[in-house]
Amino acid sequence: MAALDPRSGGAPIRIRVDRKIFPAIGAREAQLVLSDVKFEVQPHSFLVLTGPSGCGKSTLLNIIAGLDSDFQGAIDLGAGKDRMTYIFQSPRLLPWRTVYENIALALPDGDPRVKNIPEMLARVGLTDAATAYPERLSLGMQRRASLARGFILEPDILLMDEPFVSLDDPTAQSLRRLLIELCERHPTTVIFVTHDRAEAVQLATRILRLAPGKASVVQDANVQLTTAQRLDRGLVLAEQSRIFAAA
Amino acid sequence: MAPVSTPTFFTRKQASVTNGWGASAERLGWLIASLLSFVLLWQLVASYADDVRRFPTPAIVLETVSQLAASGALWANISTTLVRVILAFFFAMVIGSVIGILLGKFPRVDRFFDPWLVLFLNLPAIVTITLCFIWGGLTQAAAVTAVALNKIPSAAVTLREGTRALSRDLNEMAEVYKFGWWKTLRHVTIPQLAPYFASAARTGLALIWKIVLVVEAFGGNGKGVGYQIFIAFQEFDVSIILAYALAFILIVQVIEFTVLQPLIERVNKWRR
């Protein structure tokens, strides 16, 4: 797990959302989604935002990514803002481009990192699928391609919105391992959204829990597990019940 | 709102890909059998009618085709008409697409101009043609405009539909990965619009080459297939009418199979 690296010395990411409202549409009333959400994310930490669906966690992630600017507050991504990557809930690959082309398109034109693509494909186990079109692949393979696309940029900040949802358990587990491995190779600050508490505990160094009624952070907990311990299902479960005992 | 035909050529293309050589030989067999029985039926009715001028046999029409070809009239008139088809097609596709994309992109503009679009969609072809010749004189420009105006509204409607269906997910992806406008246009937007464009092009060609003959007959300036058919009508010479019709059908089919179909297959090769 990407542990806090004292040498990095970078400024933390500062997030402040005073108010985020979904405006009224037709018969539906305006809805307060987030209010007084304020926290910092230390460099190279793995922050998980969790909570039931509808608690505003994906909305918060879109705000952090800059995709949603209709809110009151301020986001300071610090030095990492130019090296940010977002891995979406659905893979969002271009169906008319091959796996290789999809990954290459994430890089600016003429970027030398294009030579790292074969190695990245090998790492996610897609070497044989490099020339395939995404719709011919399984969802798990598409997810891996989407991870490869995100990681080829060697991001300093990585935002992930339930990237492993609706996969069978072994596939999800192997992708989580891959994520841990990729984060260790290139230290990254991760903000990861999931409603799955076991997944949250397994991956996070810190967990923020949001609640739908409150529209805000209701719990802030550190996860006390080493990288090796995270692979032990029993230990993850024990830590999960410790953290969410009050919830 | 007029109904919009969703692009339907995907299934057709898949069939041609999955079938092997044997299957295409079989299809060719069916095609030949089908056309032969049509000619046979024509021959039967013609010999029953027994009036060479008003209902010529296939052999007479074929002879007329070769006479027209030998005199050079066939190709001269067909090329004149084809130039009009190509010009009208080009302008209709470009203008219709631009209008459609703008309407699809900006809902307010769409709300304002939608009634105009409905108006033009329902404007009878003969009205646009008449007005174009009254206002523009019997000129090439007026003829091409008249033809194009008949296609622009439906091209706009198709492309508007395509623009509305553009994936917001993929646009966000392009934004996050800093594609910029050119990369987004080339790799994200155009591939999504391609099937709508192809659909508009195919129905456009089918419509335009029919309308163009009416335009030529109506405002003929001595050249063009439509004008020749108009003259033949006045002389009751059915064999000339059918000769031009046959030659024209052949040319349009060649364009369909050598230009449009390969283009559509190329655009769709990524589909499952």
Order of helices and strands of chain A: EEEHEEHHHEHEHEEH
Which strands sit side by side, in order, in the main sheet of chain A?
5-6-7-3-8-9
Specify the biggest β-sheet of chain B.
none
State the low-pLDDT regions of chain B, or none.
Answer: 1-18
> How many structural domains does the protein architecture of chain A include?
1
Note down, in words, how this protein is organized.
The complex is a heterodimer of chains A (247) and B (272). Chain A contains seven helices and nine strands, in the order E-E-E-H-E-E-H-H-H-E-H-E-H-E-E-H. Chain A has helices spanning 57-65, 99-106, 117-123, 139-151, 169-185, 197-203, 233-243, and strands at 13-22, 31-41, 46-50, 72-76, 84-87, 157-161, 189-194, 206-211, 216-222. In chain A, the strands form two sheets. Chain A has a six-stranded mixed sheet with strand order 5-6-7-3-8-9, with helices on both faces. A three-stranded antiparallel sheet of chain A has the order 2-1-4, with helices on one face. Chain B has two domains: 19-50; 57-267, MetI-like (MetI-like fold, Orthogonal Bundle), CATH 1.10.3720.10. Chain B has helices at residues 9-18, 21-49, 58-71, 73-105, 107-121, 125-136, 140-164, 168-176, 180-218, 225-234, 238-267. The longest helix of chain B has 39 residues, at 180-218. Chain B starts with 8 loop residues before the first helix and ends in a 5-residue tail after the last helix. Mean pLDDT of chain B is 87; it is low at 1-18. Chain A binds chain B through residues 65, 67, 84-86, 88, 90, 92, 94-97, 105-106, 108-109, 133, 135-136, 149, 153, and chain B through 169-170, 172-173, 175-179, 183, 187-188, 191, 270-272.
